[in-house]
Structure formats: structure tokens, C-alpha cells
Design a protein that fits this description.
The structure holds 2 protein chains of 2 kinds. Helix content of chain A is 36%, strand content 16%. Chain A is α/β, with parallel strands linked by helices. Chain B is 16% helix and 13% strand. Chain B contains 6 helices and 11 strands. Classes of the chains: A alpha/beta, B alpha+beta.
Chain lengths: 491, 308
């Protein structure tokens, strides 16, 4: 099969993850049909588009009946009268021609360019989009000197990749590359919609660290992502290394890099490993191992293919009409990501940087890691919106309780610290606000926990006390400014 | 020669089926002989050492409890879970001394504020989840947690102590040889490593997560009696607190007031069901099970052979 990305015939694209009837109706349409991956905007899925030459119509939340109606009229030309958006574009566009649809029209589309447009596991589509470029180890090395790891599942989170690669390369034994796509929406989307980008980055890394094996690690809840990357690995032309797909338990902690390694090795109970030495020296089965997220590796593949702005994937969730995953350049503000969806009510605060992100009242922060860290926020690529009706104290209390329930149980600062943090926050409801005590505990969790889970677990409370102190004091006085907490509420 | 093994077997290694539930930690000791500056004093340690070895060799400004550390057997630890051994280094900031390799030229300060604070807070966090009824504990006076708390002048642990009888786990009083009080367990992991790595018995494991993390049995049973324990006692030997105590001395240091014993301190316990008995290794015997008619505590009548 040749690429669908050029030629004059009519191409009907539909969401591969949509209902099965959609593919049955599409198959009967008598035109070229392409099952594409998720677009990043679930609110408008299933998304169907019809392309003829340089024009595409988009049909959001398309049912089988609607699809039947629009395919019936295809002989008469593009169904523009039935479309939610129409876009004129280069006839051989390899990236989604961005329609004026909520969720798709924000930010930029570089790493996400193929989402909703290219067939995820079709090598011809990937090649037509400039993929499968083989970079030398030296070129990859150079890219790794400035490219920083993305997400808490990346061993090089916010750090350039090259130093870790060098360690792995200079350690005895064949190395392994772990693609960590566990638990984070953007990583699972990359595997579902553009797995070749991720595998391409993994292969380039494998060449650089002399690895003979790539392991893609996915949450067992992300079945679509696992199936897609498995199929892509089988279809990858002349795959230079062995590639396995391994699933791990669907719990938050399982994304931590050393717990990912434990899961790949088959341990039935996941706990963090001591460090140093890190996985680059002693990883899977004692061999040197580099652990990168799918986001990091897709970014690497695009960096090796062409120059362009470094981007960040940001998932907006929380009190919004619909969650959405968008791509920002590092100079874009987080507010522009939130603009891709609709806040329910008005925005009071946002938890930036994942479950244990930082709380802020202002989204006037750029998406680059240095700015986020300066602002006390996390770099995980998730903005969780809290509307006016939400209580910040209750929110951070629940996060502390989540940390107490979900930690691996290994080290005292994390296992017992998160429990005591939840207790100190619960004390607010009994009129006791021990700010110094909370800060002291957070400091110790940060300096002495074994892994990032414990290091970050206190961040919601720490940043909320800095940005919303009056709310903490009000609770200690027996009052919830948001009116959300009742006497029964236990954070 | 009798010591020559002339034929090899293809039996699996004894450790193959052991699943202690803990992470496969890398080796955390230094590879070279190293000279370390500890609180201004230079000390030299052999290869295979950690910063704690250097700290112990020096006359340090502050006490470094290293509560979960066990220095009497190579096969046990460092687990580095209690984090009461944090020290400040020039190169890496605050690190756990027990599991940080001793690298030549490193500088360590025990009294630096962030390290001292971390040790204090972490010791109090350990105490926060501990049944502090020392007066009914068989390890009173020979307890490493008690020693550390006294040495660190812990008057009143900042997070309190576990004293909610509803939250207490029942004592496991079912074994004839070892009593388990998980309410005193600090999850140092010594017993699990003694059982799996030293004795290679594969009985104990770490299970659960968060506050539910506990020492359990690899055979998925609830009590010591039902486990495959061979009653070697190594777990009780290495336990730093009163969590695993040899039967018969569980009240050895109880304050002699009427009515106060280790067993009634918690109020709930698992008791022997007496269905199997006899020699110390009931689950290892080929000729089990014992009959219910057998008197529970009369070894002469037990299946599994005569006592000498």
C-alpha cells in the first residue's frame, strides 16, 4: 500500500478508536479509507475528515448515520454543507491541516502533526512525512546535549540526555532502551497516534548507547497504545534492534523509572530502587539501561529530522468542558493551552505539573522547564484547572491523601511523611494551622525520599500555602472561602 | 577426595522461586579504597565501603542513627528505608550515608542543618507508626529504635506515636518459636533478607504499599503457623525492635505490674489452631498433615519422627 498522503483520490479518514460501525460504513464508501489515531481532542471524536486534492472537510462526533449520509453524497464532491470545518491545504500535506475546531486550533503541531491525519502503523505514511531518517550516533549525541527529558517517567527529567547516554555507553554489557509511556495521557497518545516517531527516537538512542533491545513499557489500561506500538514495531522497516512491548500495573507509581524497570523484570510488587548507581549503570537484569518517556523520544526523532522549535505536550484537564492535549512551543504561555478548551466557570487556580504539580493563580508562565521550575511548578505537562467553586485546601489535602495511599511503601520520608502531611492538613479543620511543620516535613521529604514520588508529593501543599495562604488561615478559623468544605469533609 | 564434586546437577538455584517483594537494588558501595573528610577529619575506608563506614570511623559532630542499617552480615542491607542517616556532602547534597558509595575525596558534614533536620524528622516519622508501649515489650532495653530515640533526645516525637487500638494489627502468636507484633515493625527489611538471602528459606516477603506495607508470607497465608517457616529464628535475631521476638522471652523485660503483658498490650492476637504441630518444620515435612487428635504440644506424638 502506498501512502495516502499524496495523490488525487478522495481519502476518508476516521478515528480508529471510534465505534466499529464507523469502520463498516467507511469501508463501503468506495473511496480510499484510512483509520487514523486520536487527534488529542477527545471532545470532537470520533472525528471524520474527507480530503479531495487540496481541501478537507471535518465532521466532529460523527455517528455511523452521519457518516452514511456524507459518504452517500461523495460522488457529488466534498460534503462541505455537512462539515463542521473546511480547510484548504497543500494537496500532499503530511500533517493535519488544522481546522478551526476547539481543541485542535491551539498551539502548534509538530510532534503531533500526524495525529488524526496519518495512519499510525503505516510505514508509508510515516516515510512520506519525512520519517525513518537514520541519524548517526554522533548526530544523535549532539541533539542529546541540548534536548531535555520530559515527564517524571524519564530518568533525565528536565536534564539533557547526553550525559546519561555516555554513562550507559561506557558501562560494560549490552544496553537496553526503555520507552516509558506509562500513565501520562500525552505518552499514550503518542503511541496510539504516532508510534513510529517514538520508535524512531528509541532506535536512534539505541544506536548511540549500543543497545540491543528496546522495551516499550505501557500501562495495562492503555490497550490501544500497546496494540498500536506493537503493530508499528512489527511494521517498522529493518528495525535495527529487538523491540518488546511490556505492560505494567495501572497505578500512578508504576511510571517511576526504576519501578518501570522492576515491572519489566517481572517483579510482582513494585518499589523504587536505591540510587546511585542509576539505571544507566545498573538497570534491567543489571545491564546499562536508559529510560526515556515517549514524549522525549518523539521530540528526539523530530529534532534529528529537521530543525524547528522545541515543543512541549500539555494536557489540560480538571474543571474544563473537555480535556485536551495540545503542543506548545517553549515560548508559549500555559494560558494558551487552556484556551484550547472551555473553563467551567472562572479559573481560580491550576495545578501545573501533574498529580504533584504546583498550584498557581496565574497561567502567565511559559512552557519551558526553567520558567516552570522558577515559578515553583512541575514540568510534567499537565495543567489541571480549578474553577472558582473549588477549595484549594481540600484539593491539596486530597492530593496528600492520594500520595499516602499510592506510594510504594519503601522509604520513611515518603511512606510516613505523606501520611503525616495529610494529617497536618486535616488539622486545619480542627483549627490548627502549623505552617512551619508542613514546610519542615515537605523539606525533609524533598531531601531524603528515594524517588521523585516522595520528592514531589509535598509540592501541591507547599505551593498552595505560598499562593493561597489566606484560604489556609480561613480554614483554621472554621471557614471555607469557596464554600466547598463542610464539617464532614476530610481532605 | 570427598570434597570433590564429580557430577553436576541441573537443579535450579535455591533462590529461583524466592519472591521477597523488594526491589533489585544495585550494589551501592564504593569500588576503590577512599579517603573521606568527615566533619573535618580525614578517614580512609576500604573498597566496598559506604559513607556510613566513613562516618563510623570518624568522631563525628552529630549522631547518625542509621536505624535500618545492619552491619553484622554482608547479605543484609543496606535497605536505606528509614533515612535516619542523612548527611550532607559537597558533591551530592544531602544523601543517605548507609547507601551512598564512599568515593575518594568526598567531604561529609553530619551537623549541616538540612541533614540534621532530615535525620530528626525521619526518626520521628518512624516513631509515628510505632507501638510505643515499651513497658510491655520483650525488647525493652535492647531495642535499636529505643536506643536511637534516647540517643537523639527524642522527648516527644513531633508526629506522636501509634496508639489507636483499633488500628493495631493482631499479634501473631501462632508459632511455637517466634511471636510477631507488626505494630512495632519499622519495615527495615532485615528479617526478609535474613530469611531469603541468608537462610534461603523464602518464607517472608514485603507486601502491600503505602500505609498497608507489611511483612507477610510468600505462601500467601496469614499466620506464621500456616507459613513454610522452619523456625530458624534468624528473623528474630536481626529484628531491631520488638516486632519479632523469640517465644518465651516476649515478656522478658515487661514491667512487673499485674495485668500488663506484651500479648494483652494490643488486645487482639492470632492463636494457634493446633492442626499441625511437631518438629519445627511442619510445612517442610513430607508426611504431614498431622491429625487433629494429636495433642498440640506433645512432640513425642507428632508426625515426623522421634525426638532424641
Amino acid at each position: 500500500m502506498t501512502s495516502i498522503l499524496s495523490g488525487d483520490e478522495t481519502v476518508l479518514r476516521y478515528s480508529a478508536t471510534g465505534p466499529p460501525e464507523l469502520s463498516e460504513v467507511a469501508a463501503d464508501a468506495g473511496v480510499t479509507v484510512a483509520a487514523v489515531g486520536p487527534s488529542g481532542a477527545p471532545a470532537i471524536e470520533p472525528l471524520v475528515s474527507v480530503t479531495q486534492g487540496g481541501q478537507t472537510t471535518f465532521h466532529t462526533r460523527c455517528s455511523a448515520d452521519e457518516l452514511r449520509e456524507l459518504t452517500a453524497g461523495l460522488d457529488d464532491g466534498l460534503p462541505t454543507d455537512l462539515a463542521d470545518a473546511v480547510v484548504d491545504h497543500d494537496p500532499s500535506a503530511t500533517s493535519l491541516p488544522v481546522p478551526d475546531l476547539a481543541g485542535l486550533d491551539a498551539g502548534t503541531r509538530r510532534v503531533t502533526g500526524g495525529w488524526g491525519w496519518r495512519r499510525p502503523t503505516d510505514p508509508d505514511d510515516h516515510e512520506a512525512a519525512g520519517g525513518f531518517v537514520t541519524a548517526t550516533a554522533e548526530e544523535t549525541e549532539r541533539a542529546g546535549e541540548s534536548l531535555r527529558g520530559r515527564g517524571w517517567g524519564d530518568w533525565c527529567q528536565d536534564e539533557p540526555l547526553a550525559d546519561t547516554w555516555e554513562t550507559a555507553r561506557h558501562t560494560d554489557g549490552e544496553a537496553t532502551v526503555v520507552v516509558n509511556a506509562h500513565g501520562t495521557t500525552a505518552d499514550a497518545l503518542l503511541l496510539a497516534s504516532s508510534p513510529f516517531d517514538v520508535l524512531e527516537g528509541a532506535c536512534a538512542t539505541a544506536r548511540t548507547v549500543d543497545a540491543d533491545r528496546v522495551v516499550v513499557y505501557v500501562s495495562e489500561a492503555d490497550e490501544d497504545a500497546a496494540a498500536s506500538v506493537r503493530e508499528a514495531a512489527d511494521a517498522y522497516p529493518d528495525l535495527p534492534v529487538a523491540a518488546d512491548v511490556v505492560t505494567g500495573p495501572s497505578v500512578y507509581r508504576a511510571a517511576e523509572p526504576t519501578m518501570a524497570i522492576e515491572a519489566v523484570e517481572g517483579n510482582h510488587r513494585l518499589e523504587a530502587r536505591l540510587r546511585p548507581p542509576g539505571p544507566a549503570e545498573v538497570g534491567i537484569d543489571g545491564r546499562p539501561t536508559v529510560v526515556h518517556t515517549a514524549r522525549t523520544l518523539a521530540q528526539l526523532a523530530h529534532t534529528l529530522r529537521q530543525d524547528g522549535p522545541t515543543t512541549r505536550l500539555v494536557t489540560v484537564t480538571g474543571d474544563v468542558a473537555d480535556p485536551v492535549t495540545v503542543e506548545l512551543t517553549e515560548g508559549d504561555s500555559l494560558a494558551s493551552a487552556v484556551d484550547a478548551t472551555t473553563v467551567e466557570g472562572s479559573l481560580k487556580a491550576a495545578c501545573v505539573g501533574g498529580r504533584f504539580g504546583g498550584l498557581t493563580a496565574s497561567l502567565d508562565v511559559t512552557a519551558d522547564p526553567a520558567s516552570l521550575i522558577d515559578a515553583g511548578l512541575g514540568t510534567e505537562g499537565v495543567v489541571e484547572v480549578l474553577s472558582e467553586s473549588r477549595c484549594v485546601v481540600e484539593f491539596v489535602g486530597r492530593r496528600a491523601q492520594f500520595a499516602a495511599d499510592e506510594n510504594c511503601g519503601r522509604c520513611v520520608p515518603c511512606r510516613e511523611g505523606t501520611t503525616q502531611l495529610a494529617e497536618l492538613l486535616r488539622d486545619l479543620y480542627d483549627g490548627r494551622y502549623d505552617r512551619d511543620g508542613i514546610e519542615e516535613l515537605d523539606r525533609v521529604m524533598r531531601t531524603s525520599s528515594i524517588c521523585t514520588f516522595g520528592v514531589d508529593a509535598g509540592r501541591p501543599a507547599r505551593t498552595a500555602m505560598a499562593a493561597f495562604e489566606s484560604e489556609f488561615e480561613a480554614h483554621a478559623d472554621g471557614r471555607c472561602p469557596a464554600g466547598a468544605c463542610t464539617a464532614e469533609v476530610t481532605p | 577426595m570427598s570434597s570433590d564434586h564429580t557430577h553436576e546437577t541441573d537443579a535450579p538455584p535455591l533462590t529461583e522461586t524466592i519472591a521477597p517483594g523488594t526491589a533489585s537494588d544495585p550494589s551501592v558501595s564504593g569500588t576503590e579504597r577512599a579517603t573521606i573528610t568527615v566533619d573535618g577529619t580525614d578517614v580512609t575506608v576500604e573498597s566496598g565501603s559506604t559513607l556510613l563506614d566513613a562516618v563510623e570511623a570518624a568522631d563525628t559532630d552529630d549522631t547518625v542513627p542509621a536505624l535500618c542499617h545492619y552491619d553484622r552480615e554482608d547479605e543484609i542491607g543496606p535497605r536505606s528505608e528509614c533515612r535516619t542517616c542523612m548527611v550532607e556532602t559537597d558533591a551530592n547534597g544531602v544523601v543517605p550515608a548507609c547507601s551512598h558509595p564512599a568515593e575518594d575525596g568526598a567531604t561529609v558534614r553530619t551537623a549541616a542543618d538540612p541533614a540534621a533536620e532530615a535525620r530528626d524528622v525521619n526518626l520521628d516519622l518512624v516513631l509515628s507508626d510505632h507501638n510505643l508501649r515499651c513497658t510491655t515489650c520483650g525488647k525493652n532495653g535492647r531495642c535499636e529504635l529505643q536506643d536511637a530515640a534516647i540517643e537523639q533526645d527524642v522527648d516527644e516525637p513531633r508526629y506522636g506515636v501509634l496508639d489507636d487500638r483499633d488500628a493495631y494489627e493482631p499479634l501473631d502468636d501462632t508459632s511455637s518459636f517466634i511471636q510477631i507484633d507488626r505494630n512495632k515493625c519499622i519495615l527495615c527489611n532485615r528479617c526478609v533478607e535474613a530469611c531469603n538471602d541468608v537462610q534461603v528459606e523464602g518464607v517472608l516477603r514485603v507486601e502491600g504499599s503505602g500505609q498497608d506495607t507489611r511483612i507477610g508470607f510468600q505462601s500467601d497465608v496469614e499466620t506464621m503457623e500456616d507459613s513454610a517457616c522452619v523456625s530458624c529464628g534468624h528473623c528474630a535475631t536481626v529484628c531491631p525492635t520488638g516486632s519479632l521476638v523469640e517465644k518465651g522471652i516476649e515478656d522478658a523485660t515487661t514491667i512487673p505490674l499485674p495485668g500488663f503483658t506484651q500479648k494483652n498490650s494490643v488486645g487482639k492476637s492470632h492463636e494457634r489452631h493446633g492442626k499441625s504441630k511437631g518438629p519445627m518444620t511442619p510445612k517442610k515435612r513430607v508426611d504431614s498433615p498431622a491429625t487433629e487428635d494429636s495433642p498440640a504440644d506433645d512432640p513425642d506424638d507428632a508426625d515426623g519422627g522421634e525426638w532424641p
